[in-house]
Amino acid sequence: MKKILLVFLATTCLLSCKKSSEEKTPELSINYKKIELENGLDVVFHVDKSDPVVAVELMVHVGSAREVEGRTGFAHLFEHLLFLESENLGKGGLDKMSAKIGGSGANGSTSRDRTNYLQTIPKDGLEKMIWAEADKLGYFINTVTAPVLAKEKQVVKNEKRQSIDNRPYGHNQYVIGKNLYPKDHPYNWQVIGSLEDLQNATLQDVKDFYKKWYVPNNATLVLSGDIDIAQATEWVHKYFDEIPKGKEEIPALTKRPGIVKETKFLYYEDNFARVPQLTMVWPTVEQYNPDSYALDVLSQYLTDGKSAPLNQVLVDDLKLTSRTGMYSRNSELAGEIQISIRAFNNVKLDDVKAGVEKGLAKFETEGISEKDLNRIKAGQETNFYASLSSVLGKGTNLASYNTYLGNPGFVTEDIKRTLSVTTEDVMRVYNKYIKNKNYIATSFVPKSSAELAVTNSQLADVVEEKIVTGAEENFDAKIAATYEKTPSSFDRSVEPNYGETPSLAVPKVYESSLKNGLKIFGIENDEVPLVRFNITIDGGQLLESMDKLGVANLTADLLNKGTKNKSVKELEEAIQELGASIYVYSDVENITLSGTTLAKNYDKTLALAQEILLEPRFDENEFYLLKKATIANLRQQEASPNSVASNAYNELIYGKENIRSKNILGTTTSVETISLEDLKNYYNKYISPSVAKMLIVGDISKEKVIASLETLNTNWKAKEVTIPTYITPETPTKPTVYFYDIPNAKQSVIQFGTPALAATDKDFYAASVMNYILGGGGFASRLTQELREGKGYTYGIGSRFSGTKAKGAFTISSSVRTNVTLESALLVKQILEEYPTTFSDKDLETTKSFLIKSNARAFETSRAKLNMLSNISDYGWSADYVKEQENTVNNMTKEQITALANKYVNPNKMIWLVVGDAKTQLERMKELGYGEPILLNKTQRIKN
Predict the structure, then answer these.
(1) Do the Cβ atoms of 530 and 862 come closer than 8 Å?
(2) CB count, 10 Å around CB of 840?
(3) Helix (H, G, I), strand (E, B) or coil at 183
(4) What ranges make up the beta strands (E) of 768-825?
């Protein structure tokens, strides 16, 4: 592997507890070349040949801030539309292209200030992607018809329901924006806009928006990865040169902070909240403002970790919450800093507010020490390298710097400003923006719990959507647009050829083991000076007893809370001073210690990981706080449709006597009964190297890894551990519909599926190949094409096989608009029934093309390499299992697809679960044809 070309203009140990005045701050840069076309398009190239992939990103300098009141949500709506079709790409647009060339999936996002379109592709598809991006920018708008616009409005509405309306505390940022910024400020409204504005959008509105903003002189194209700059430049000129420059000048918007003339308290009774939440917000500065860097440090210092002043007061002293959060949000025109605290059940937010004030007063008195500042900076250094570990990460950085500053190389100045923050700076910005300054406070409380809100709070104005069956307009998005094609100097309908096919480079894996039984799997990779490792111990929830559900989760959580010789605060500071992260967590089958560190600090980081693993503190007070936090989390899950669906579905799939059906957190009853002694017993019996493995990826040799584990080999004694086997039930013999009532839900969460296969089953990968066109292939799948693209019922839908060493489930999951719950289920049923007989030669070609070509990017990131090691170590797969999977794909036939579909995705042998509003949807589900729906709960309905 070749190292990413990061230029160190000065090298030194970034941080130490004491720095001499002679030491220089390291200056870092990403190599790049920038050109500007005559039409104003900025193009940035970055070469990184470590993997045969290229990240392609088009960033357009338009977000919600460029909209006007009454026409909000257009930038985000446009992000959706641009994927659908263009004159020469045809129907399916970038999504279809991505599937064919093995891309990571055409993706995009919209912020207040920009919209970006991005994905990583195998390098042989680069000319195709440049052709496609040019088609979207210059040859798109004629393909947008009234039916297409109507359908995409429904998709965006579903996104809003899923991410805001049907989620606890989802309306909080809306309330903040309306009160922090004046009505005529472009940050007054949310990026997703209002449903009313979206519904009122006309086809002419959309065309006008496109012609004004989607022009070359308002965009940046970044090509980052295994490229030849000369060849890429030639292609860019060929496809982009004749796209005309925008007719209107695009002036820069004026920086304009939020205004809070007097402190304002607002409250809202949230249909999905089960515990109260307080948010306090102060206006600050725009991004890249010199003060924004000190505000980042301030927000991290006040709420991150045991030594954080707000945690010391609210968590440790007052015990009102399990954690506090604060973040500095700096956008192009303005910024804000928010403190957000989700309190325990029935806690009055007046008490939380008083605790915040006490914590801030503590900071005013004590300030931030040089040691604390340096540990925060150390973490920022690690995060910086992590952001450069993929070509997509580097590409996004280059695009952002160019869009906002006109300088792709601003990374050098950016990191310099970050590392130049002083303790005086941190106190100065606190005094300037927070101390004795007016702010907005929101109290989001459960229904009928207004008494928990901060005193003198006024009811916030939130628009709740009324969903009525049959109220949505009808449309047929498949109707082809008729138009005269945009003239071009050459035939743009001819798709470019592939380049030279990249060879599949499978990382070299080494294996070893220690005498105590610990197995070691590693990959040496020197692209960035980082090391990531997981120490995974088999067992997890499987080793719990039914009357002590949640023990594994609490044990893992408590291992993070100090060691025999270090308090929680001392441990956190020791980790942070290294710029490292170490975290222990549990899942159904394992407890895992995960670590990330700069390569230069690996030995010290590993020593701390060993201390966590072998010398737990088992602090009584921390145990008490973790129990309270877990119970609060469980209470919140009771009103979260997605959590309810996951828990109910697992119980239906595995059965109540199978521990795999249980929530990893346990239940409120079981957690209440768990003692500290239970955790010690679990630790002493089951945390053993005999059932453990270490997976490690990064800038470190096998020899150094083995040598570094000598202490662990000596001190971690093996014990015999027997992991129980739970048998997954067989496939149902008939379909059954189940319904879980969430009153007033704006969407129905659907999970349809059946027990299926273990990852080690001979059919598992073949079945996953079969599932690609059904629901595993994103926008290439029938479920997405029909329910989202065809009908606008959902924001997203997919299907997957989820087996591990044990047999798992085949599951179709989505969140659909409440008033089309039945229609969605009927359409899924039809797709499943027709799939075995309608899978075509074209479907097989698309499946093979994607699954083979996508392997070029299969191992680009350290996370992907760790996942590879996990597959090898968990399932006994060979180091080149990807090549074996390629053989499976290449040899797949339509007949095999049909047989696999009939065997594993039969709708007449499935569980059909709906989580939604029973009052309006339960009775309708009879029409699915699978008998009387079974109601899983009885809920007291609360009037809005």
Answers:
(1) yes
(2) 11
(3) coil
(4) 794-801, 809-817
Other CB atoms within 10 A of residue 841 CB: 8
Compute how many other C-beta atoms are within 10 angstroms of the C-beta atom of residue 883.
12
Task: Look up residue 473 and give its two tokens.
Answer: 């307009």
Helix 676-686, helix 551-559: angle, nearest 10: 80
Mean pLDDT of 44-64: 95
One-character DSSP codes across 275-307: S-EEEEEEE---TT-HHHHHHHHHHHHHHSSTT
Give the contacts of 490 (CB within 8 A, at least 6 positions apart). Answer: none
Task: Give me 851's structure tokens.
Answer: 């699954």
Q: How far apart are CA 593 and CA 700, in angstroms?
A: 19
Tokens 């919140």 belong to residue: 636
CA distance 17 to 375: 9
Q: Tokens in use for 811? A: 């599951």
Return phi, psi of residue 543, to 5°. -95, 5
- Per residue, the 3-state secondary structure of 866-899, as one string, reads HHHHHHHHHHCCCCCHHHHHHHHHHCCCHHHHHH
Please, which pLDDT band fits residue 467 given cuts at 50, 70 and 90?
A: low
pTM, two decimals, is 0.88
Question: In whole angstroms, what is the distance from residue 727 CA to residue 653 CA?
Answer: 11
Q: How many Cβ atoms are within 10 Å of 224's Cβ, its own excluded?
A: 29
Residue 853 or 840, more confident: 840
Nearest alpha-carbon partner for 201 in 248, 138, 156:
156
Asked if 332 and 292 count as a contact pair (C-beta separation under 8 A), the reply is no
Question: Average pLDDT of 270-277?
Answer: 94
Q: How far apart are CA 442 and CA 163, in angstroms?
A: 19
Whether the predicted pLDDT of 774 surpasses 90: yes
Type of residue numbered 437? K
Q: pLDDT class for 75, splitting at 50, 70, 90?
A: very high
Closest to 450 in 3D by CA, of 351, 349, 352:
349
